[in-house]
């Protein structure tokens, strides 16, 4: 005889709402008789735009050259409490390093919560300016982890 495994759709809805709130893209839950994989869709990528600001003309008729008003650096923050991992536990190389170019939505770190590793995603396209937290440090919600210089 086979064991009947039933899944309550209400429970799945609750789990997916928790995953969406924590910005978790993928989770796999397994038992000897069954495995459930939930994958969340990635949000659309956002682009950072720069604009040109023209200084007002001087009284003598000369004007200043255009000034590029670029966005200052963007911080990648922790969306939950956990232990920050700059390197995947099964690998020896860091996920990103200073000077690396990253795309919005790319994994730039991990937050370990018990045995679960939750990806930390770059919010915009850019270049890694610096890592603000040491590998293995305990962080709280909103902690600035990595600094990015947005791409134009």
TrEMBL record:
<dbReference type="InterPro" id="IPR011053">
    <property type="entry name" value="Single_hybrid_motif"/>
</dbReference>
<feature type="region of interest" description="Disordered">
    <location>
        <begin position="45"/>
        <end position="66"/>
    </location>
</feature>
<protein>
    <submittedName>
        <fullName>Acetyl-CoA carboxylase biotin carboxyl carrier protein subunit</fullName>
    </submittedName>
</protein>
């Amino acid at each position: 005889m086979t064991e009947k495994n039933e899944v309550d759709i209400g429970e799945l809805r609750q789990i997916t709402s928790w995953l969406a709130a924590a910005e978790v893209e993928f989770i796999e839950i397994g038992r000897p008789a069954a495995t459930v994989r939930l994958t969340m869709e990635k949000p659309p990528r956002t682009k950072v735009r720069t604009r040109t600001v023209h200084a007002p003309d001087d009284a003598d008729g000369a004007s200043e050259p255009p000034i590029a008003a670029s966005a200052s650096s963007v911080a990648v923050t922790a969306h939950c409490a956990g232990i920050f991992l700059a390197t995947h536990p099964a690998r020896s190389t860091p996920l990103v390093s200073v000077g690396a170019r990253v795309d919005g939505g790319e994994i730039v770190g991990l937050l370990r919560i018990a045995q679960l590793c939750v990806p930390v995603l770059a919010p915009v396209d850019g270049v890694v300016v610096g890592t603000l937290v040491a590998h293995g440090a305990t962080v709280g919600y909103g902690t600035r982890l990595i600094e990015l210089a947005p791409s134009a």
